Every structure is written in structure tokens, then in C-alpha cells.
Amino acid sequence: MHSDQNIALRTLFVCSLLFSFVRTSTTNTLDTISPNQYIRGDQTLVSAGGTFQLGFFSPGKLTSRYLGIWYTISNEIVVWVANRETPLDDSSGVLKVTDQGVLVLLNSSNGVVWSSNSSRTVDNPVSQLLDSGNLVVKNANETNPDNFLWQSFDYPCDTFLPEMKLGWDFVTGLERYVSSWKSTEDPARGEFSLRMTPYGLPQLVVMKGAKIKTRSGSSNGLRLTGSISRPNPLSEFEFFLNKDEVYYEYRLLNKSMLSRYALNPFGIAQWFTWIENTHSWEPFFSTQQDQCEIYAFCGSYSSCNISNAPVCTCLKGFIPKSPEQWNSQNWSDGCVRNTPLSCSYNDGFFKYTSFKLPDTSSSWFDKSKSLKECKGLCLENCSCTSYANLDIRDGGSGCLLWFGDLTDIRTFQSDSQDLYIRLASSELGGF
């Protein structure tokens, strides 16, 4: 028997070298608990494929205890914390699932420290840790793999995982967003959040409190409009919008890969990939790599170009609003029109091809309109300042209109998306 076990272990070791990361064997582990079971002390749930574990931990040198989910291969990377605002004082915490299907975390005096918040109940509830990192409560006999009573993916912490939705459920009012830890050793909610704003054309932003810190933009069918055009060999992204919900999610092209998008306590969002050769998480992408990533760094009607000196330049037909401030390299006041619009069909448009599209908070869109129709609609409205295709795939389709000031524009070094900015006819000259 021992010989068979040794052969099996050697086989497992050899097979593991064929994958990009090592998965832990789960022969003697559980991924599910029912009302007659619990997790306490050093006990853990391990997802079926061995990717994630759920259990109790103490961050850094703290003695406070939290219930969290982490990577088996890298247990210092915690992706979700249940009781992030209410830590346990000692190691006496117990996680149970009630007969009604509610997860409860109890302290030494059986007081409820944290619980899942579902208004529905099921007859035969279980809680399961999925290999996606999602902790779910469901009916044990449920055949629909997506029918959950409750799921941790609806309540992210500082990590945006593959197959997790980031956005709004307009029916229930639920907002799914990522929020940073307070510090590297305190998982309490910090001051930064990664979320989708539902106003105008929805867009992804990093916020500091109630103010936008950086803006990744909206989807143009191929990518986020604030992203530099480059091939993405790791994942595919999806933007979904209808009357019931709007969300953004990504899926890994290589299912054996480990990847995560995390918001650190300093407000920097980074996309990490696990590299087995170095046994480390390597950053693939990071927000705020330069001044031009700072929201509205150059103010309105101005473009930020990190390759220029100075980095801020007024758009064609615009001049600095505060010349003295502008010349002292304080560009936050932005620019204003050199010539007012006539508010008629005599106005025209100047085409830019290498811009990060402006903030879409005060925008309007229609998937069915052509670019020509879009131009006409803009000219009919005195408040319309710019237009573009909503979707740039297959030659472009749909209409996106901006109303009010154009803010948070930057120049990319390669072509991105055409943007047509409204100008008085006298400013267009031969264009």
C-alpha cells in the first residue's frame, strides 16, 4: 500500500510540472460544509481544484483574526475577507451555515460577528468554495451551477477575480465594487474603490472617497477607452449593459493560469499573473503610471501627453482659462473656447485620432445610430460638444454624444479611437 502511495505521489509531482502552477491535492479535504459541520481554528475549506482555501488568518503581526479566502499556492495573498470591519479578538471563531442557509461567524460567546445577508431560504443548504474563489450558499440538490442563495462575488474586497462582475444590478440596487484595504495589515475598508459609474455611458474609475482618482473609461467594443491599444494575450474582457444590469468582467484564456486585479491601500490598481518559474506574482498592468493617469490633470478641453514638455496642451480652438496659472504649470483650470459656438449647422468638427475619450458621465448613446446620424444629432443640440462611434469594431457603429465640458483627455502614441470635437466654423480654417 505504501508503495502504491509513493508511486501516486511521484506521478502527481511529475504531472504538476506540466502546468503553469502546482495545484494542491484535495483527496482528504472538503470544499463544502452543511449545517452539521463547521470551520474553526486551523481548519480550512479547499476548492475542488485546489486553487483557493477558506479559513482563519491574522495579517502581518496582528493578533486579530479574520475569515478569508486565499490562494493555496500563495497563502499571503488574501482575495476576500468576510469580517473585514469586525475582527475576532482571539482564535475561537467558528463558521457555520444555518438550517435556513445563512453563513454565520461566531465568537467565543456565540455572538454573531458576521453573517451573509440573504432574504431567501432553502431546504437543504450547503456552503461551497468554488475553484473560481467564489464562496457560495446554495441548495445541495441544485443542478443549475449559477443559482446561488448567496455568493461572496457579490461583495468583493480588494480583489477583482476572473468571472467576477464589477458593476450594478439595477433590479436589486446591488453595486459590486472593489475597495482597498485600510493598510497592508488592516483589511478594513480603505479610502479607495474601483467601481463602475452608472451615469451616461458607464465607465470604470478608481475613486478616493467620493472623487475620481483615475479613469479607465468605457468600453468601445474592443477595450476600455482609457487603455493604450495593445494585444492582451492573457484574457478576454466583456462589457454587458441592458435595462437590468451593467457590469464588466474578464475571463482567462488559459484556464491553468492564475491572475488577479487588485487595488492596494494607496489607490493603485494592478493586474498580477502568477509566474511559476519565479514563484511570484508579476504585474502585467498598473494604473497611474504617469501624471496623465491622474483624473483631469490638464483640466477641460486640454490633452495630456506624457512625451511633451509641458505635458498639457489646449485643444485646437481653445486657449488657457487662467494664463498665469497655466504658465506656472498649474493646468487644472484647463482651457476655454477661443471663439463661441454659433449653435447652428455652421459649426463644424475637428477630428482627433489618438485620444483617450473624455469622461462620459454627461454623455448619451444609441447603439442603432450611424456616425453620420450622430453628427447631425450633435449639431441639433447646442449643448453637444463632441461625438464618436460607440463601438469601433467592424468599421464602427453606434453613436456617443458628449454634453458640457470635455474632461480627462490624454494623447496616446498610437491610434485609438476617432473623436470629433465641435468648433466654431472660423476655428476650422481649411479643415
From TrEMBL:
GO terms for biological process: recognition of pollen. The keyword Signal applies. It comes from the Eukaryota. Residues 30-150 form the Bulb-type lectin domain. InterPro entries: Bulb-type_lectin_dom, Bulb-type_lectin_dom_sf, Pan_app, S_locus_glycoprot_dom, SLSG/EP1. Residues 343-424 form the Apple domain. Transmembrane segments: none annotated. Involved in sporophytic self-incompatibility system (the inability of flowering plants to achieve self-fertilization). PANTHER family: APPLE DOMAIN-CONTAINING PROTEIN, BULB-TYPE LECTIN DOMAIN-CONTAINING PROTEIN. This is Bulb-type lectin domain-containing protein. Keywords: Disulfide bond, Glycoprotein, Phosphoprotein, Receptor, Signal. Residues 1-24 form the signal peptide. It comes from Prunus persica (Peach).
